[in-house]
Structure formats: C-alpha cells, structure tokens
Specification:
The protein is α/β, with parallel strands linked by helices. The protein has a domain at 3-43 and 98-203: 3-Layer(aba) Sandwich (Ribosomal Protein L4, Chain: A). Helices cover 40% and strands 11% of the residues. The strands form two sheets. The protein has a six-stranded mixed sheet. A two-stranded antiparallel sheet has the order 7-8. The chain starts with a strand and ends in a 7-residue tail after the last strand.
Amino acid sequence: MAQVTIKQRAGGDAGSMELDDAIFGIEPNVPVMHQVVTAQLAARRSGTQSTKTRAEVRGGGAKPWKQKGTGRARQGSIRSPQWVGGGVALGPKPRSYAQRTPKKMVRLALRSALSDRASEGKVIVVDDWAFDAPRTKDAIAALAAIGATGKILLVLDAGDTTSWKSFRNLTDVHILEAGQLNAYDVLVSDVVVFTRSTLPSAEGEAPARPKVARERAARPAAEPAPSADAEPTSDATEADDMASDLPNRPPSDPAKKSAPIEATDRVKPVTDKPDPRFEAARQKAAKEDALRARVARSGDAAADTDGASADESSADGASADESTETPGGFSFSNTTEDET
C-alpha cells in the first residue's frame, strides 16, 4: 500500500497513513475515464436552443401566386425554408443531452482518477483545518503551508462551515463534499486535498447489506435439533413458528385452520350475481310482455262481445223467415217467384 504523510494546517507532519490500494493503487483505465467524463460534460448542457419551423413563423398563410401560368416555380408559402424569413428545416429543438452511465463505470473512473493523482504525489491529507473563525487570509496561508499550488480540489465535511467559508472566495479552489467526489473534478485539478475524515476507503464504498440479511445476522443462534425422545410438534405449532419470523403477521387462529373450506366459500355461483349489462334489457322485455298480454286480454273481451251480438241477430232472422233445413245443415226458402 502507498503511504502518505498527514499534514497539519501550519505545515508540520502529523504522522503517516496508508492509502487503500483498491482506490489509490489501481491501474488507471483511460477509456472508462474518457467515457464517464464525456457523459458528465454532456449532462451539463442546458439543451434549451430552439428554432422555428415553417409552421411557427408568423405569416405565410396565403399562396404567393397561382400554381400554373406564371412561368415561375410553384410556391405554397412565403415562410417555406427556401424563402428569406421562412422557417428553419431540421433545426435544433429543446432536448436533453444526458447519457446513461453504469454505476460500476462511474466508480471505476473515480478510482482511476484518484490512482493517477496518487501515483504523481498529488494527493494531500490534512489532519484537521480547525479554523477559529472564517478568514480567507488564514485559508491562503494554510494552503501555502501544506504545499498545495495550482488548481486545488478540496474535499470537506458538510458540517465544517468555518472551513467552507474560509475557502469559498478563492478562485483556484474547488470545494466538494465527500459524497460529491467525481472523476472530472479530480482530473481537472492539480492537487486533491483530503482531511482524515473525508479520505475515501474501500470499506466506506461497500454497499450496505440488505435489511433481511441484517435481521438474520442479529438473530440468536439456532437451537439444537430435538432428540428422538422429545415429543413431536404438531403442524399448527410449526406453522406458528414460521409465521412468527415474518414481520407484521397476525397470530394464527387454530379454529380457522381446522375448519374445512367448502366449495361454496371459494367460488360464488354465477346466478347470485346478475349481470348489470343485461338488466335493462330484461326490464324492457318484461314491460313489452306485459303490454302484449294486456292487449291480448282486451282483444279477447271485444271478440266475445261481438260473437254474442251476432248470435242474437241470427236467432231473430231464423224466426222471421220460414225455412227448412236439410239433414246436411243447409237451409233454403220455401217460397220463390216461380211458385207464386
């Protein structure tokens, strides 16, 4: 591991420490750094440039001249791209230039940049700035004492307000938090200055374990397996033990577990659920059937009345005329004009 001397604010030595080879001792990967820096610079672009198309330029509603007969080229609008003052064809519009970069590449680019600066001796570690009050003059003296010249990248704690106010007015000093460290700012700086608390390490970058893994690690050791003489546990007890390991699980009810599940509890018959889409049609059909039955009943009553009146009239006619009926049921008059 590479060693670095810890500096004091006044310029003296406060001991030495070893830099983590996983961050400051790898072979710099130049293509990855180039891709990450290019993506970072592309994401800085505002992308707000815009031009007007022929549909957005004011004017041009009427056709300049008729289609044929003038001897000139046909034109549809004075705001076409070939006209002066017309719209722009294929011009820029507001867009985002951001690129998606994998997180592993971003971390590798940062480690490569830090390793490059560490190999050149451009990484400085300060024990603690410990300014009594925010003063730019004290910040300039401190940088001169530790030998930091040129463009300086200063990594500070977010809560170190005095140091932030002391260095923020210096044009050649760029201040970042430990969590904002990136490959571009490291590469454009001549010197990277850390404090003992902001110096990155592989342990600090390791991802946190999942919550389930932490809970399992916090549980006590498993109990020994029961012997052959021990009484066997029931299925309900084992299920309760398994449910107790899950969070927010209500206690189980043995009565519910023992009760069988009927088929009617799972699926409700279709007949119990009338389809609302056909309910209106059913009601309309029922009204029509009732209306037809009412009309039929009124027609039958009228027909009965007409039949009774017809029978009465036929009976009166038979008594008035002297006629004889044949055995077949036909009748004819006994008197004719020839007989008279």
